């Protein structure tokens, strides 16, 4: 019997927040094979009349992604949106500087709008505040959202799109604090530009929601001064501030890798504090929410990618950022999602970066099928069963230390109550790499509930991966548990991802 344990109390009345389903968003950038040979591949055996791969659409639908950020990422900071609309034969080929590729513009924003509808999603659009500014952002918004009777709305109609795209959510640039960004700016330069762009955009369409750029990651030297300075300008005009963070296990230390959500907690607390500081400074009544619009594991393919961009630039749809995800990566993805749910009172949007082929849960073979990476499963399960109200995880749990973190909880867990379906789901990760953990949950108040499903992902080999036609990492159902009088008991295997669903 392990001396490690985690005890949890779940109570309907102890609510964190109603979860905004947009925390299960994702991201498609014009990068590598995300668009070309990813979501769009005319001539592929599964392509539909628009050239969209049906096998990919099926997998995207399985993930139930409610919002998808587009068209970048670093790509957007030198993007001329006009190149991507109108007759395909007239579209310009451009040198794409962020990823040193060739952009044919064969697929553009109207095609993306059509595709998002087919996968039951909506667009989170980013505007170029790197090499462009206020007027181009306004023109794009007019093209997308204005009904008709103005130059850009009529241009859209002339391109065959009578109905406006009605894009609700707009990002004011991308990672503008990063020296790698084309058109990188200081906090003051960005703050002023974002403020004026936001003001003008809301004059065109007051119903839109705007996301101002926060820091590119917690390690940025300008963090968190960037947040305070830029929000001082933009606070009254925007609705969300963005956060981005990618994680890696370059030291090959699984225990420490799985502790990284401690850093994520710190990132969230600091950004929330910066928002609330500016709120107080401005005597504002408005609460600034968070859009974690890029997050994932990203490190496996970096070396290869630098070589491709340096030595073999200007390719169309090169293999870039094609990280093959391991089992331990899937555990971290589960831990990150639990962390977002714990902060669902402030994190209202989040985008798993990215969706297809580029640091993605879904991969394609140019000549063959599409397949699911290890990270597909925790994301799919939380997106599917993590709808409703996040409940406060009242936890008593043993802890351990790792190389760079102290007091790391053995188990991270949260429960989500779906009132409509009368279901409650516990998501739990045992991140102790050496020991199993005895787990019990007291489901007080959930009278007459029974177990609907207990699914688990466990592997001896932390580096196990899935490949085309070979799926090693996937959830299986578990029967070793007890559930009596509202008390649930099991043993969470070391390094395991657990989804326990209760219903009437
Ligand atoms: O998602 C890949 C890249 O990561 C994005 O283009 C950029 O915004 C971030 O640095």
Model description:
The protein is α/β, with parallel strands linked by helices and 504 residues long. It folds into two domains: 121 residues, Immunoglobulin-like; 357 residues, Glycosidases (TIM Barrel), CATH 3.20.20.80. The chain contains eleven helices and 26 strands. The strands form six sheets. Strands 3-4-7-8-9-10-11-12 form an eight-stranded parallel beta barrel, surrounded by six helices. Strands 2-15-19-20-26-22-23 form a seven-stranded antiparallel sheet, with helices on one face. Helix 3 packs parallel to helix 5, helix 5 packs parallel to helix 6 and helix 10 packs parallel to helix 11. The longest helix is centred in the middle third of the chain and has 21 residues. 50% of the residues are buried. The model has no long low-confidence stretch (mean pLDDT 97). Bound molecules: alpha-L-arabinofuranose.
Distance between the termini: 32 Å
Number of domains: 2
Query: Structural class per helix/strand content?
Result: alpha/beta
What fraction of the residues are assigned to beta strands by DSSP?
25-35%
Strands in their spatial order, largest beta sheet = 3-4-7-8-9-10-11-12
Shape summary = globular
Q: Give the proportion of residues in helices.
A: 25-40%
Estimated radius of gyration: 23 Å
CATH superfamily of the largest domain: Glycosidases
Number of helices: 11
Identify the bound ligands: alpha-L-arabinofuranose
Mind telling me which CATH architecture of the largest domain this is? Alpha-Beta Barrel
CATH fold annotation of the largest domain = TIM Barrel
How many strands in all?
Answer: 26
Reported for the largest beta sheet, the result is:
8 strands, parallel, barrel
CATH class of the largest domain: Alpha Beta
Question: Kindly state the mean pLDDT as a whole number?
Answer: 97
């Amino acid at each position: 019997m392990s001396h490690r344990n985690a005890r949890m109390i779940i109570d309907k009345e102890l609510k964190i927040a109603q979860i905004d389903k947009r925390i299960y968003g994702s991201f498609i950038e014009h990068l590598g094979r995300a668009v070309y040979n990813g979501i769009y591949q005319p001539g592929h055996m599964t392509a539909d009349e628009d050239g969209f791969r049906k096998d990919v659409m099926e997998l995207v639908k399985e993930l139930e992604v409610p919002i998808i950020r587009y068209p970048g990422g670093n790509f957007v900071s030198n993007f001329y949106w006009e190149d991507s609309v109108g007759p395909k034969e007239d579209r310009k080929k451009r040198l794409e500087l962020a990823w040193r590729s060739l952009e044919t513009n064969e697929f553009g924003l109207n095609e993306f709008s059509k595709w998002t509808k087919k996968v039951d999603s909506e667009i989170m659009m980013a505007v170029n505040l790197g090499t462009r500014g206020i007027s181009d952002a306004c023109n794009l918004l007019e093209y997308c959202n204005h009904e008709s009777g103005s130059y850009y709305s009529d241009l859209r109609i002339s391109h065959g799109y009578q109905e406006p795209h009605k894009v609700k959510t707009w990002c004011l640039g991308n990672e503008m604090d990063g020296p790698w960004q084309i058109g990188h700016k200081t906090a003051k330069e960005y703050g002023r530009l974002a403020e004026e762009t936001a003001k003008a955009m809301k004059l065109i369409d007051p119903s839109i929601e705007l996301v101002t750029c926060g820091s590119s990651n917690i390690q940025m030297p300008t963090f968190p001064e960037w947040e305070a300075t830029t929000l001082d300008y933009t606070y009254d005009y925007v609705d969300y501030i963005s956060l981005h963070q990618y994680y890696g296990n370059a030291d090959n230390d699984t225990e420490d890798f799985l502790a990284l959500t401690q850093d994520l907690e710190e990132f969230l607390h600091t950004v929330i504090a910066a928002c609330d500081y500016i709120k107080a400074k401005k005597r504002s009544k408005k609460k600034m929410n968070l859009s974690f619009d890029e997050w994932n594991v990203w490190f496996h393919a970096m070396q290869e990618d630098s070589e491709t961009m340096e030595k073999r630039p200007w390719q169309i749809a090169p293999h870039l950022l094609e990280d093959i995800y391991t089992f331990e990566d899937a555990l971290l993805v589960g831990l990150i999602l639990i962390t977002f749910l714990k902060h669902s009172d402030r994190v209202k949007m989040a985008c798993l970066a990215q969706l297809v082929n580029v640091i993605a849960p879904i991969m394609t073979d140019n000549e063959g099928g599409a397949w699911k990476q290890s990270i597909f499963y925790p994301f799919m399960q939380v997106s599917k069963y993590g709808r409703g109200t996040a409940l406060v995880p009242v936890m008593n749990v043993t802890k351990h230390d790792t190389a760079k973190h102290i007091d790391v909880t053995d188990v991270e867990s949260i429960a989500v109550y779906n009132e409509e379906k009368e279901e409650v789901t516990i998501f739990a990760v045992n991140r102790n790499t050496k020991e199993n953990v005895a787990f019990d949950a007291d489901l007080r108040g959930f009278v007459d509930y029974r177990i609907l499903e207990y699914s688990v992902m466990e592997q001896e080999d932390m580096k196990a991966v899935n490949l085309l036609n070979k799926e090693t990492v996937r959830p299986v159902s578990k029967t070793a548990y007890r559930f009596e009088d509202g008390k649930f008991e099991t043993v969470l295997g070391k390094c395991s991802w657990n989804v326990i669903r209760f219903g009437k």
